[in-house]
Amino acid sequence: MAKLTFHGGALSVTGANYLIETERTKVLVDCGMVQGSRHALEENYKPFPYEPSKIDALFITHAHVDHTGRVPKLVKDGFTGPIYATEPTVDLANVMLVDSQGLIESESKGERPPLYNEKDVEKTAVQFKPVKYRQEIRVNDDIRVRLQDAGHILGSAIIELWVRENGKETKFVFSGDLGNPPTPLLEPTEYIDEADYVVVETTYGDRLHEDKKQRKGLLENAVEDTITSGGTLMVPSFALERTQEILLELNELVENNRIPEVPVFMDSPLAIRATEVYKKHTNYFNKEARALIESGDELFNFPNLKFTLSVPESKAINDVPPPKVIMAGSGMSTGGRILHHEMRYLPDPASTILFIGYQGAGTIGRRISDGAESVKIYGTEVPVRCKVRSIGGYSAHADQDGLYGWIDNMRGGGKLKKVFCVQGEEEAASAFALRVRDRMAVDATVPQPGDVFNF
């Protein structure tokens, strides 16, 4: 009997890790880092609840660390099989994992061996096998897989997985993270025609995003208001997709004279390196973005934009008087250079912090966005006196309506038996499962960590 086990991503936005087993074959979908708290760090160090050396193949939906961050540990612990992902995901994952390894080394502080080291990351890179959308991959005779465009970040994929037993095929669909179209860069999320079982992310399973048409205007207002007040606009940036989208929109605002001239700093080595990968894979962009490139427009460059790769360049930002705009990692203020800027400018009433993506429970970004009067950064209590803004329209995740419509399309095939709601906090996942049950009359459940489903 074949089975699906939820080894990560259940009742959690992060740590995606799903195991499909038949009598002959074992494959994983994603192997992500658990993020958001000290407890999460301990979770990552736990041994895998399966034998890595017995896994035949790993399929990666996209390059975010909550979907890839433990892959080098899997390799370190004995996994030698192929790691299938789209071409951009392979390139982005290599960038992300090198960065992750550096953070792990610094955080371990010699107190214990790091989760994995540089050699483990290098071994992992060799095992990656780039594939194209809609290319079929066969794992033995009982499992075949195809990747479709999720529209979440560059190269992100939906995993279609067929299991053959006793002459009959059962189809699973793993959403990965679904996009929030339309976006300035990417093609919209692809719809899947049919499935027996769906494993769907529910990060925003209990809410709707604001109108995407408003987001550029809200960004424009945030920049203009900060310039008027003579402050600093801090944008905690997610290295993949949100950063590139914001750069593209700032480019358009600057070129159309919709915002005054102001210094803009891209202060994230990871985002800078990721942007280089985006430039390499423009064939994955939508037709509008490709048309801009063909017209000679440099999508990720405009006057007064400075990329600060080195530490001295980053520190020199302090010498530039406001008003100015600083985009820096990490997106939830869990580490990176944004923390140094927050220590300096959170207490400044003339400044603004602008959140452009989901803020996970337990993160500094979540506490600030929830209205905390102060936050602790590097052991120092920092008062929050600056303005706090959020633009939900820049979320790279589908909202409740987007998720529902995507699943509803699969109901047309008449085969849909069950929906598993994962990669969301319990309240969001439960709300979405309730909507699916009530409106589709399809069984929907919120798996617990470690739950096993036999089929």
Automatic annotation (TrEMBL):
Residue ranges annotated for the Beta-Casp domain, each copy included: 243-368
Protein name: MBL fold hydrolase
The keyword S-adenosyl-L-methionine is annotated on this UniProt entry: no
Gene3D superfamilies (UniProt xref): 3.40.50.10890, Ribonuclease Z/Hydroxyacylglutathione hydrolase-like
Keyword terms, alphabetized: Hydrolase
Gene Ontology terms for molecular function: hydrolase activity; RNA endonuclease activity
UniProt-listed Pfam families: Beta-Casp, Lactamase_B, RMMBL
